[in-house]
Amino acid sequence: MSGSTPFYQKHHRHYDRGYRSKELESAVSQYQSSSSSSYAARRSSSRASASASAALSASSGHVVALHERTTPIPCSYTRLSSSYSGLEESRLSPMPKRAKPTYLAMDKENQIIGYVVPIFRGSQEYASGFSDTEEARVKESAGYMARRNLFTSGLEMERTEQTSRKVSMRESAERISLSKRIYENEEHHKRMNKDSLMHAPEFVIKPRSHTVWEKQCVRLHCTVSGWPDPRVVWYKNNVTIDPMAHPGKYKLESSYNVHSLEINRCDFDDTAQYRVSAMNSKGELSSFASIVVKRFKGEVEEALPMPRHGLISEYGITFDTHIVDGFGVSFGREGETMSLGATVIISPNLARYQPEVQWYRDDVLLQPSKWCHMHWSGDKATLTLTHLNKEDEGLYTLRITTKSKYETYSAYVFVRDADAEVEGAPGAPLDVKCQDANKDYVIVTWKQPAVDGGSSILGYFVDRCEVGTTHWSQCNDTPIKFARFPVTGLVEGRSYTFRVRAVNKSGMSRPSRVSEVVAAMDPADRARMRGTSAPWTGQIIVTEEEPAEGVVPGKPKELEVTEATKNYVVLSWKPPGERGHEGIMYYVEKCVSGTDSWQRVNTEIPVKSPRFALFDLAEGKAYSFRVRCCNSAGVGEPSEATEATTVGDKLDIPSAPGRVVPTRNTDTSVVVSWEASRDAKELVGYYIEASIVGSNKFEPCNNKPVKGTRFICHGLVTGESYVFRVKALNAAGLSECSQESEAIEVKAAIGGGIPHASPTPPYGISVLECVRDSMVLAWKQPTFIGGADITGYFVDYREVINGVPGTWHEANVKAVSDRAYRVSDLKENRKYQFQVRAANMAGVGIPSLPSGTFVCEEWTIAVPGPPHDLQVTEVRANTLVLLYKPPVYQGRDPVNGFYIDIKEADAEEEAWRGVNEKAVLTNYMKIKTLKEGETYVFRVRAQNKAGVGKASEPTEPVLAETKPGTTEIVVDVDDDGVISMNFACSNLTPDSKFVWSKNYEEITDDTRITVATSGGKSKATFNMLAEDDIGIYSCAVTHTDGACSSYTLSAEELKKLLELSHDHKFPIIPLKTELAVELQEKGRIRFWLQAEKISANGKIEYVFNDNSLSQGEKYKMNFNKDTGVIEMIMESLLPEDEGTFTFQLQDGKATNQSSLVLIGDVFKGLQKESAFMRKEWHRKQGPHFVEYLSYEVTPECCVILKCKVGNIKKETVALWYKDGREVKGDEKLTFTEGVLNLEIAQISKKDAGVYEIVLKDDRGQDTSTLNLTEQGFRDLMNEVFSNIANSSTALKIQSTDEGIRLYSFVSYYNEALQVTWHHKDSAIAFTDRIKSGVVGEQLWLQITEPTEKDKGKYAIEFHDGKGGLKRTVELSGQAFDDAYAEFQRLKAAAIAERNRARVAGGLPDVVTIQELKALNLTCNISGEPLPEVVWLKNEREIVSDGHYVMKLEAGKYASFTITTVNTTDSGKYSILVKNKYGTESADFTVSVFSPDSKK
Question: How confident is the model at residue 139 (pLDDT cuts 50, 70, 90)?
Fold first, then answer.
């Protein structure tokens, strides 16, 4: 058996060496132990030749079969090696000197894993119909040619490369024809020599184990020999793999004894042990392989099966395939026809070459049918959907496969409902399928439509149609709400199709697409018709059945309730073992739980299938069931009864999906993701709905349920804002809608719609602890996490020997979430380097730069190692919080504290300084000594009893600033006394989450705090606040620019919150005003109060002296719910109304009351005032005084008596009286203003008296009196005096020739005005030197001959009977000096004026005198001292002589005489008097005339 396998295949590391012969084992041992490569090559070649010869002599037909394959055997990681694994020569070749190619398949580590059979290039024709001798000769020749071509293909390939394309194609065709004929001949030879070739299965190449990334495809393959051809079955964890049960998941292929299992889009569930079993009539053999699926490898978009790895070129040609002009996202409507097409460019372009063209919908291969037609035109692939239905919605993929490679192209097709035949009717159901078909029974299932027409769907009707007819009959009389229905009453052997219609209150929907045809027959018969049979065993056993008498069948087995709803119950069982040779039927019986009364359900016709559906059961009742078998021999014993089953829906409608997050994709699409429904059973999928913001109209985004939690909604309007919601569905129905998402504007996302990317590399790798065989590493988070949470890290390590790094090895297969990891299985005192990769939902990022070289040696220092994982949070302008983790290496003693160091980012290392003088015990610290705008770095050191350890790696630089939009945690106590912490963030991203922590450790236990998040707000509610809750609470928002805040709950704050909570739990309705009383018109009494806050449901109870009051004639109640004003009005107060009035308020659980006590003088005063107001109201029914008589003093100190009247008419008159005597006032009333005046100018004591005005007409009269006597008059005069005082000017200083005068002016002076002058705050006693007086409107104070004693503050005080008014002036300092100097000047001027020389008079202006007459003029002069007198004529002094005589008598009489006047005496004469005080002159003119001239 070992000779049937070439020697070089047996180096495969998975080959089972137990099958080798002793001689072969010896040869291999010698080959492996040989040190000379050439010697080993020759020995191996020799033994390979011997082995090959033995194989040819043993079975030439088998060897030909081995080498005649026209299709190469695919192997994982296949590549052609350049040598025979070290063998330099081969002695098998008839041309040993030619260059020898190799056909070994090698993996990346140069391990032999298989072989490649070359393409035959023989050109001889092979004709059938030869004799046995000729046939053997031809067969031997073909074998020789194959062997020759096997080892001369290198030369042939060189020759082929030199030929033209036409020659190459011709040779390829010849090779294909020859290979086909050789294969047919070999098959014929096998059939003719079966017995000589039969042997048990043998694995020539066993399947290999694989480790792959999630979402990739993987292929297990093996090569099996054996005759008859073994039947190969694949198992997963010892469970048979059925590709039909998992469409698109598994693909099984068998070709030329090469068997493969393809697993599409691997996930964690595919991690398992796989077994392949080969079995024929000679035996059975199995082989095992494992598949390990790892995560975080980067997004693998290919959902379709991958091509075989390492395929060689078809016909020696490598094809390049490109899909261009593809189809885009398409939208259609039910009933329409749609075509999808794409142009395919294959290079090189060979005529009549057709690649494999496949179409997939949602990863399921489509087959041509009446619903879809496929066409290939040589350069274009087209798929035509002839009649669109919602079942046709999905992701369509075109796959073009050549033997070299394959290309795919995908786009989504959306199918909308056709217009309803009845307006408001729902959409048609979809995906109608038949399950569990039996002889007379089938279960029909379907999916609910996304459109309900605006009203809820009442149920569904199932219709059936027998194949060959067009008549549809309704299967259920009443609508069924469950999306599954058992149809009974089928006729065995006939085929049916089904459809479903939905109904709501508006009408019936269109029918669904019809189901696939299903036959009513026994499942075993159906399996036999499919051709499934056991493998041939080589034996045919013929038996003859003896006729047997009828046997009563036994009990059915394994009876159970497989489905239970409120409309029906389905039973299932297995036929009995004892049933004879004829067919059996069944009777079903039911029994109400708790009774022993069994009732047959199908009394008329027994059922043929081991399935049965019971209808018309009472909902809520419990039943037990049993089944009996029957045949012609009788009815058998009943089966064991089932457990009691309560009639009702066992499947609940799924809960509403969780948070919906939209993400921008393109300018017409949005990626919508959501949280799956919790605890949903038998979930079918989800419907997504979208609505333009503000429209409140939701439209379905998909009409076929999607099973994931992420969907791309296409066909949106660019620039519009949408909100989304999601509904889940199962057979029980559709869930409630999820909460609406945040609004999102439709526009293209950055990066072409890819929302996430893999993270950048971590950095800052350091060692936290080192022991003999392991090291604990720490690193810093990547600077860019890719827009999604980092889900873990992968650590690689490599050994460094003599400075040369080795190969990287994985330290962890499963991702670690912490930024610290212990790398184990290291070697002591060896040097290592490490690298770290971060992973998120988008994949695994590139690795970090290699770390420094670390030596794996055990730490023995006494002090602790460095803390790690430093994080900065809650950054503000002057504070931040530093978080850190304790060191992994504790030292000799446990860590008992931490020290935090700080320095400016750009400062030197020597600038590090401590933040805390005393070590802190916590793993966090709030730093409060920052300067706004400065950038800092931090580090932490741990200490134990031995001392302070090494400092941690410093943080990244942190800028001390409060970012715009920063918010803080707000503590709130609601109306029910519930205490909560609230945090809002306006910068959320679709992946943002609120994370609440206590003492900076995430809160995962909800026993004390319940967290609820909605939109951009999160609330953490204390379940029962107590001392255990004291601590620091913080909230951080992920995927933001550090949005976080904290709140410290201290013991004092706890006490305050508990008190506030108590006030809210037992609330009091707040009052703006307490109960008060006021009087209204007619003297009505109004009791009222105003509540600050009370709802419309508030209730009021009015109580007087503990007695409840009600609405009536005496009491009028009113409650204004808008303003919170509550009032009660009484017309009057009677003696019995004396007491306590109370208003009692209640609003929900909030209460309050307010009381008013009206007793004694308070009650009597209110009662009296009420009566007065009532009387006043009656008075005002006629002409009356709105404002009674009063007076007004004008600024001019004129007194006006006035009153305001109302309700007057033309006939109304007003009469004025003083002391009983009528005086004249306004004769006409002004109806527009209604004001009457009586003016008294310059009032004096004579105007004192009693003034009265009478207003009267035919309706009555009213009188108003004003008493202006005694005190009334004094008050009036005081007001006059007040006006005078207010009109006074400020005191001013005036100098006179007698002294200094102080004065003030008033607008009007009344002789009754009393004023007082003050000097230095004391009243002045008037003397001859200091006097006061009044001149007109001027009031003055004269100080004669002032002295130093007269300096000081002076004031004039006006008395008005009240506070009076003072005007002051300061007569001191410079003011006094200036005034006194002016006084001296004026005094001197007055003296000079008084004593200067003067001409008192006596001289005429003109004197006319006759010639020869005498002229004598005399004038008075004065002055002290006596003035000097000079007479002038025409400005010339006159000297006394006989003609002019001038005399001065008694010192005051000056005379001027002209004794004899002549004409020469005419002229201008003057007298000039002067002394030391001044000079004065007087002029006169003398005119002399002659008598003659006069005549």
Answer: low
User: Given this model, what pLDDT does residue 549 score?
Assistant: 61
Contact 1238, 1249 (CB under 8 A): no
DSSP 1314-1362: EEEEEETTEEPPP-SSEEEEEETTEEEEEEES--GGG-EEEEEEEE-SS
What is the reported pLDDT for 539? 40
Residue 1339 buriedness (CB in 10 A; 0-12 / 13-18 / 19+): buried
Phi, psi for residue 1062 in degrees, rounded to 5: -60, -40
Beta bridge partners of 1380: none
Pairing of strands 820-823, 804-805: unpaired
How many Cα neighbours within 13 Å face the side chain of 727? 24
pLDDT at 1009: 92
User: DSSP states of 865-927 as a string?
Assistant: ---EEEEEES--SS-EEEEEE--S---SS---EEEEEEEETTS-GGG-EES-SS-B-SSEEEE
What CA–CA distance (Å, rounded) separates 26 from 1125? 113
Question: Could you tell me the CA-to-CA distances from 827 to 804, 823, 858, 1450 in Å, in that order?
Answer: 17, 11, 11, 154
- Structure confidence by residue, pLDDT tens digits, 1215-1239: 889 888 888 765 555 545 678 888 8
Q: E strands along 394-489, which residues?
A: 394-401, 406-416, 430-435, 441-447, 459-466, 472-474, 484-488
Identify the CA nearest to 1298 among candidates 1397, 1369, 1396, 1391: 1391
Residue 920 has pLDDT above 70, yes or no: yes
Buried b / exposed e along 1242-1266 (16+ C-beta atoms within 10 A): ebeeebbbebbbebbeeeeebebeb
Contacts for 1334-1337 with beta carbons within 8 Å, 24 or more apart?
1334/1309, 1336/1309, 1337/1305, 1337/1306, 1337/1307, 1337/1308, 1337/1309
Residue 631: the pLDDT is 85
pLDDT of amino acid 144 = 56
Query: What is the residue-averaged pLDDT of the chain?
Result: 81
Nearest to 686 by CA among 699, 697, 671, 676: 676
Which long-range contacts link 38-42 to residues 24+ away (Cβ below 8 Å)?
A: 38/88, 40/86, 40/87, 41/84, 41/86, 41/87, 41/88, 41/89, 42/89
User: Can you name the residues that pair with 213 across neighbouring β-strands?
Assistant: 294
Tell me whether the omega of the peptide bond preceding residue 1425 falls within 30 degrees of 0, making it cis.
yes
pLDDT at 143: 58
Map tokens 């003011």 to a residue. 1375
Q: Are strands 380-385 and 372-376 parallel, antiparallel or unpaired?
A: antiparallel
**Cβ neighbours of residue 679 under 8 Å, at least 6 residues apart?**
655
pLDDT tens-digit readout, 779-797? 998 888 776 678 899 999 9
DSSP strands (E only) in 1360-1443: 1365-1371, 1398-1401, 1406-1410, 1415-1422, 1428-1433, 1436-1437
CA-based end-to-end distance of the chain: 200
1141/1137 Cα distance (integer angstroms): 9
Residue 206 contacts residue 222 (beta carbons within 8 Å): yes
> Taking Cα atoms as reference points, which of 453, 448, 414 lies closest to residue 729?
448
The residue among 400, 307, 311, 310 whose CA lies nearest residue 353 is 400
Band of pLDDT at residue 34, cut at 50, 70 and 90? very low
d(CA 498, CA 463): 6
DSSP letter (8 states) at residue 1386: H
Name residue 1012's beta-bridge partners: 1019
Q: Which of 92-101, 938-947, 1303-1312 has the lowest mean pLDDT?
A: 92-101
Joined tokens for residue 570? 């389905």
At residue 54, the 3 state secondary structure works out as helix
pLDDT at 522 (0 to 100): 77
The DSSP element (H or E) to which 1174 belongs, if any, is helix 1160-1179
- Split at pLDDT 50, 70, 90, the class of 835 is very high
Amino acid at 297: K
pLDDT at 491: 87
